[in-house]
Design goal:
The chain is built from 10 helices and 12 strands. It folds into 2 domains: 128 residues, Periplasmic binding protein-like II (D-Maltodextrin-Binding Protein, domain 2, 3-Layer(aba) Sandwich); 95 residues, D-Maltodextrin-Binding Protein, domain 2 (3-Layer(aba) Sandwich). The chain starts with a helix and ends in a 7-residue tail after the last helix. The protein is of the alpha/beta class. The longest helix has 25 residues. The strands form 5 sheets. It has a 3-stranded parallel sheet, with helices on both faces.
């Protein structure tokens, strides 16, 4: 009888212990949701873009935000399964907005370099475009990157092409938008500005009376990526999947033809 009583007590203790463990497990806090999960739960992704960078991100005559990157962002959002909300800001502050969480990513002809890669996880490239050096029509002093030494280049202070100009010996005339950089060249405050040939060509087509020329064409390289803050690689992977699907469907090519007249989405 004593043995039976001891066995019953032992079983009761075990059952109480298991119940306590079960209660503790039920109260274990859930793991925090990833950024991708938050985006899908809220139903939209917030994308940083300039809104002044023709023809990638600008406002049409009705005031609507349009452009190559604007449509790329919308297609990426579609394949992720959410809407897109745009956050317009100057390029100089766009990464600050990403760091602070005001935006989830950037779609604005964003280039890759090792310094940025230390902080951000980048998508696969989605454009391959030639860089170019633009000068005034009467400037015959720049024929290569080496000729930038001692010149003044009008570019945004955080742009990769502006950094390239400085590497080749140019002094930077810091501006906030491409149109402003071209006006600096036209007005003689800068000798040149560096950007992508597609952007220059589109500007010159829209402004045929502005006396500028493309003085130098650079080698075509991957030029645009979509970054996220490191630690959000699941979002980066979802963006890559969306870009792959948009490329396979022909949507990326169609957007490129619409804004550039050529397909810049293939390497």
């Amino acid at each position: 009888m004593k043995k039976l009583l001891k066995a019953m007590i032992a079983c009761t203790i075990v059952l109480l212990s298991l119940a306590g463990c079960s209660k503790q497990n039920n109260n274990t806090p859930a793991a925090p949701k990833t950024l991708l999960e938050q985006i899908r739960e809220r139903g939209y992704i917030t994308v940083g873009t300039e809104g002044t960078y023709f023809p990638n991100s600008y406002h049409d005559e009705s005031g609507k935000l349009v452009g190559f990157d604007v449509e790329v962002a919308a297609v990426v959002a579609k394949y992720i399964g959410v809407e897109v909300q745009y956050f317009e800001t100057e390029w100089a502050s766009i990464f600050t907005a990403l760091d602070s969480g005001k935006i989830d990513t950037i779609v604005n002809e964003c280039g890759y370099n090792e310094d940025r890669a230390a902080k951000y996880a980048f998508s696969n490239p989605y454009t391959y475009v030639q860089g170019a050096i633009l000068t005034r029509g009467d400037n015959d002093s720049i024929h290569s990157l080496d000729d930038l030494k001692g010149k003044v280049a009008a570019n945004e202070s955080t742009s990769l092409l502006g950094a390239m100009a400085q590497e080749y010996g140019a002094t930077l005339d810091a501006v906030n938008a491409m149109a402003q950089s071209i006006m600096e060249v036209v007005n003689g405050r800068a000798d040149c500005t560096l950007n992508y040939v597609t952007s220059f060509a589109a500007y010159m087509k829209e402004n045929p009376n502005v006396d500028v020329k493309i003085a130098v064409l650079l080698e075509a390289k991957p030029t645009a990526y979509i970054p996220v803050v490191k630690g959000n690689e699941d979002l980066r992977d979802a963006i890559n999947d969306a870009l792959n699907k948009a490329a396979a469907s022909g949507e990326l090519t169609a957007i490129s033809m619409k804004y550039f007249g050529v397909d810049v989405t293939k390497g």
